[in-house]
Amino acid sequence: MNKTDLMAMAPSIAAAMAAADVSPGIQLPQTLYRAALVSSWGIPAGASVLEVGCGQGDMTAVLAEAVGAQGRVVAVDIADPAYGAPVTLGQSAEHLKATPLGSRIDFRFGLDLLDEAVTFPDSGFDYAVLAHCSWYFASLGQLRETLARVRRWARNLCFTEWDLAPRSADQLPHLLAVLIQGQIEASGSRGGGNVRTPFSHESLLRILPATGWAPAPLQAVDTTALQDGDWEVEACATLLDNVDRMSELPQTVRDLVLSQADVLRSLAKDRGNTPLSAYSLTAR
Description:
Layout: H1 3-15, H2 24-41, E1 48-52, H3 58-67, E2 72-77, H4 89-97, E3 105-109, E4 125-131, H5 140-153, E5 154-162, H6 172-186, H7 201-207, E6 219-221, H8 228-240, H9 243-247, H10 251-267, E7 278-283
Parallel strand pairs: 1-2, 1-4, 2-3, 4-5
Antiparallel strand pairs: 5-7, 6-7
Helix pairs in contact: 1-2, 1-3, 2-3, 6-8, 6-10
């Protein structure tokens, strides 16, 4: 399916998502963004795809449309089906499975790809996809191990993540919210948030060769229509208000985080915080 066709299908793909019943104005931009990504990767009809960190299935649905009736998407996530809000992973998967796209998707939640008991045939997938899931990993080392393991199972890698380097001052609230959450996690206060290990694209490029992947040049991705800047600012504010999590921090770290939080509050808007840019790459 070419880019024009996939983008044209975005409204119907978005409608297949359970979150569309809650926030249709939010779901469509998220789906359009992912349709543009999949189009840029050139994933063809009939392809087999292993999606790592599928979450509620925003990318899964687009991949299922792209690969067509003869393709398949195995969508895995280490999280429990009860995770997520306002729609859980399990509820979203159940909703999507009931649509025409559902027969092309195999959801597997609670699956740890680093568990030696979990395996797939060598080179059994045409593509492995990691889309905005890598900051969920507990460490960069865990991501490195996962990329190395997935290398055995897939011939091509498609990867996208937020870029820590801001391109404008209005992206600073999103950046600060991400860095504050990452510092809290790195200091030993572990939680279940979206941001656990934020890292630069330079860090990714340093580890990819060691995991067996040869990356093509990075491509910038337009994120201006997305709401993720607001979501991370809100998530950071909630975390800062969590007395138990904050009390777990060493005093020096807590002082640093609180000072950064002061800057975040001075810059952030109630709504309309511009998201960071994103980058995309493929590797073989």
